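Here is this case:
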Amino acid sequence: MDAGQVTQLLQDAREGNKYASAQLIQLVYAELHRLASRYLSGERSGHILQATALVNETYMRLFGSGEPLKLKNRAHFFAVAATQMRRILVDDARSRHTHKRDGIQIELNEAFQVAPEKDAEIVALDDALKELAEEYPENARVVELRYFGGYTNEETAEILAESVAKVRRDWEFARAWLFDRLAVS
């Protein structure tokens, strides 16, 4: 996928070109579907959302309002798309399981896995991630892409236009920060 082409289509959509968003989704659909599949890989069997539905819901949240997108480039687009996918799944988890538990332990490895009994943990992680984003937005974006999106350090660095070393530092800091926050939730 050509990053310059994605950026140009985002600019065209921002300027009111009705067809740019349709062209954009065709260009990025495979990557969005991979991202959605990654999010759903650990969900319970029979989950109402499938990867295609998650991509479609994400698309509607991004483009459905009729307002022009204010996304700057490919990196910004995928970061926002990952956030929207996470919000869709968190909203679903919240609707199924609304209470919090004390001292939640979530292992922040390289991969996002969700099991039905983990709904409270997903909600707690989302709440903690919102706090992290308020204090350390760059670190929160790395968590979005690494943990939820399943991107490698190298892919995350490319998306964020950062060095791999900075992504590693941000990832390690965010993991420690979230571990501390979730241990006392």
In short: The radius of gyration is 16 Å. The helical segments are 3-14, 18-40, 51-63, 74-96, 119-135, 137-148, 153-160, 164-183.
